[in-house]
Specification:
- The complex is a heterodimer of chains A (277) and B (460).
- With 277 residues, chain A is mainly α.
- Chain A has one domain.
- In chain A, 76% of the residues lie in helices and 0% in strands.
- Chain A is built from eleven helices and no strands.
- Chain B has 460 residues and is α/β, with parallel strands linked by helices.
- Chain B folds into two domains: 324 residues, no CATH class; 92 residues, no CATH class.
- Helix content of chain B is 56%, strand content 6%.
- A five-stranded mixed beta sheet of chain B has the order 4-3-5-7-6, with helices on both faces. A two-stranded antiparallel sheet of chain B has the order 1-2.
- Chain B is globular and about 75 Å long.
- Classes of the chains: A mainly alpha (277), B alpha/beta (460).
- The interface between A and B is medium-sized, with 26 and 33 residues.
Chain lengths: 277, 460
């Protein structure tokens, strides 16, 4: 009888704890949302062109690369025009690279806020990445316009894009947590990430197509989770079939590791924030 | 820091926020996913380079196709699915629809993650037994790094290898005295088929001999015997078929399988308390594999050998004198094995990759999805979930229908298509009356039969 009542009490405690956690999580989500929109607002607040910068940046880059590779070097991406092909890769790459670069300084750049109030610090890099997701949505609009302008056929497999984007989001968040925490301890991380992302870009199939290269090189490039995701995103939009679908699972596995590892690292370094800053 | 578990048992925990050897909750899961990521990558690379053995994978894909197309009655007659059907595994009924939608990569991913989760069970058992967090973390890493466990995952697809982590979770639930969790694990184990029934018996004995978990051991043994007797007319334990002599392969296997635990045990066996019954059970698994006498079972790369990782981990966890000793030795051992596995994978995966992978892919693209294809086992899985795949060995046992496609890469063996079999197929390719060549480049042959082919005798 006593056992039964103890078990009921434990169950009740469990439900109460769960309710409190959910309530807490709701507040964190609200805080993350507010910080993300504040980030977007302050970024474009005193600029003349405002949110248009989110469109101008990919447009200018695509125009330059389209001219250099498409016109001067005659890189063939037939049947897709090179500008559309390149923009297809660049849009998704920019979300990752900008997300990571925003997350790097998200904690160290908010020292004043951290000193004033207590909130889970992990909210800061999360909000930084989410803010870049808003920019990404504008860039995606540009990609859609170019697809329509060049009359490139789009396959129904594009419906997979939200799913792949979700994986990319978690991967970006994971790397974001890692670099945000490490940047508090070592400010070199900002410089290092700029350099690393440049190398990473060339090792990802953003400005070149994967098919046509030797098989072993293709596989080396696909082991890179961001490369695999960009290739998948472009494939589902433009070709309707995926050449190496098994690498989606490789990317998912690495995403799981990077996301959980990122949280673990952030939590490990978090107690040192007050000391260092 | 001392904290108390729900059942009132005191346990020591690390005082830090988490580190490599004192991981917190997220870090422990990150370790599991790290293992999953590395193993999934290796499996995918081997698969796309046509280096994966793929015989079991081809069989499972054919079985999934039969199941999803409502032709499960043919499981016993299809040349690729006969062995799977006789294993009485129900997990294939769950995997079939999932793989049809999610593809072959899903199997690699799932397998790596399930096996990796065993490390969490090892860690939790260690914590329950009040081992230092770093000791539990090191034993978890030893479990993950056990060569047989990694190899069984990346060479082919073997759901049987999931028995290792499931056994560890079974023991964890028994020690936690959770009948619900224990029951679920027991039922999941039956899903892996009769090939793991023996492992369940050994675990039952292990639990029976452990303090305070005797009832769980008895339940395990009773359930195992009853389930296999009622459901499938008897508990079939592996047959004793050793020829009585040690082959070179068996000796190599013994070294491979015994060396890692011996090195770890050597560091521990200064006290008698290091001896426990789990070592005997691990030895039982080893003896069992050798006694089977078949070449495949005395390989360190089969799912049967992977069970050694589970029993070995339990044996290490049960050593009273383990605390404070394991760290240095285990780390040395782990780093050594990582380097060795790296070198081994380079020599077994990257170096022997076929130089004609592009030609194999080009030939495969010429085979219509609706046509029957006879090919080597590392090529067949690339057609996905289909029943229209037959191994090259059918040449001796079946009449092969007219219009069947045959794709051969004689330069790379799959371990099953012997030289006489490949020669016989190539002779047919070169006979204009029997076949029509569709593709031939860089040693890759694709031809289509122009008449039914009766079973061939390769004796002469």
């Amino acid at each position: 009888m006593q056992n039964a009542s103890t078990s009921t009490i434990r169950r009740w405690e469990w439900w109460t704890r769960l309710a409190k956690r959910l309530q807490g999580a709701g507040l964190w989500v609200e805080l993350t949302r507010n910080l993300a929109s504040r980030d977007v607002e302050t970024r474009y607040k005193h600029s003349l062109l405002g949110l248009y910068w989110a469109i101008i940046n990919p447009l200018v880059t695509a125009a330059i690369f389209g001219f250099v590779f498409g016109v001067i070097f005659h890189v063939s991406t037939k049947p897709i025009p090179y500008v559309v092909f390149y923009l297809g890769g660049l849009t998704f790459w920019n979300f990752f690279a900008n997300g990571v670069m925003s997350a790097v300084g998200s904690v160290s750049g908010n020292a004043a806020l951290l000193a004033k109030i207590y909130f889970p610090r992990i909210v800061l890099p999360t909000a930084a990445v989410l803010a870049r997701f808003i920019d990404f949505l504008f860039s995606l609009g540009v990609l859609v316009v170019f697809i329509l302008l060049y009359r490139v056929p789009v396959h129904w497999t594009s419906l997979w894009i939200p799913g792949i984007l979700m994986i990319q989001m978690f991967f970006t968040l994971g790397i974001g947590y890692m670099v945000a925490a490490l940047n508090v301890l070592y400010r070199d991380v900002t410089q290092l990430m700029g350099l690393l992302l440049m190398v990473w870009l060339y090792f990802s199939p953003v400005m070149y197509r994967l098919s046509g290269h030797p098989q072993s090189l293709q596989i080396i490039l696909l082991i890179n989770p961001v490369g695999a995701m960009i290739e998948l995103e472009r494939n589902v939009i433009f070709t309707g079939h995926v050449l190496h679908p098994e690498y989606l699972w490789v990317a998912i596995a690495w995403t799981g590791f990077v996301f959980l590892g990122g949280i673990a690292l952030f939590k490990r370094v978090e107690p040192l924030f007050a000391e260092v800053m | 820091m001392i904290s108390t578990l729900h059942d009132g048992t005191a346990t020591t925990r690390g005082s830090g926020q988490g580190s490599l050897l004192q991981p917190d909750r997220f870090a422990r899961w990150a370790w599991v996913w790290a293992y999953g990521a590395v193993v999934t990558t290796l499996a995918a690379v081997r698969y796309s380079l046509y280096v994966v053995h793929g015989y079991s994978l081809s069989g499972y894909l054919a079985a999934f196709s039969l199941i999803t197309h409502g032709q499960s009655k043919d499981l016993l007659t299809n040349p690729l699915t006969r062995a799977i059907a006789s294993n009485h595994s129900w997990i294939i009924w769950v995997l079939a629809p999932l793989t049809s939608v999610l593809g072959v990569g899903f199997l690699f991913f799932l397998s790596a993650l399930v096996v990796g989760s065993g490390a969490l069970a090892v860690y939790r058992i260690g914590q329950l037994w009040q081992l230092e967090p770093r000791t539990s973390a090191v034993i978890s890493s030893l479990y993950l790094l056990y060569p047989s466990l990694i190899a069984a995952n990346i060479y082919d697809f073997h759901p049987g290898v999931w028995a290792a982590p499931l056994l560890l979770w079974l023991v964890w639930f028994a020690l936690k005295k959770s009948w619900w969790g224990f029951g679920i694990m027991l039922v999941l184990m039956t899903g892996l088929g009769i090939s793991v029934a023996g492992a369940l018996v050994l675990t039952g004995i292990g639990l029976l001999l452990s303090k305070k978990s005797g009832w769980f051991g008895a339940a395990d043994l009773t359930f195992t015997v009853l389930y296999w007797s009622l459901a499938h007319g008897g508990l079939i334990l592996p047959h004793w078929a050793w020829a009585g002599r040690l082959s070179l392969r068996t000796v190599l296997y013994l070294i491979w399988a015994l060396l890692p635990p011996s090195v770890a045990a050597g560091a521990l066996f200064r006290r008698r308390s290091a001896l426990n019954h789990w070592w005997l059970l691990a030895g039982g698994v080893l003896a069992w594999n050798i006694a089977r006498g078949s070449v495949a079972d005395t390989s360190p790369f089969t799912d049967h050998s992977a069970l050694l990782a589970a029993f070995g981990a339990m044996a290490l966890l049960s050593c009273d004198s383990i605390t404070g000793r394991l760290g240095k030795w285990a780390l040395l051992w782990s780093s050594g094995w990582v380097v060795l596995m790296g070198a081994y994978l380079y020599h077994s995966t990257w170096r022997p990759r076929p130089a004609n992978g592009a030609e194999i892919a080009a030939a495969l693209s010429l085979v219509p999805k609706s046509s029957l294809l006879v090919s080597q086992s590392y090529i067949l899985p690339h057609r996905g979930v289909t029943v229209r795949n037959w191994p090259t060995t059918v040449i001796t046992s079946r009449t092969i229908p007219n219009h069947t496609y045959v794709l051969l890469n004689p330069e790379i063996s799959d371990g099953y298509s012997t030289s006489p079999i490949l020669t016989a197929w190539l002779n047919i390719a070169k006979s204009p009356g029997k076949s029509h060549i569709r593709y031939h480049a860089a040693g890759v042959w694709l031809f289509q039969l122009t008449r039914p082919l009766p079973p061939q005798s390769l004796g002469g």
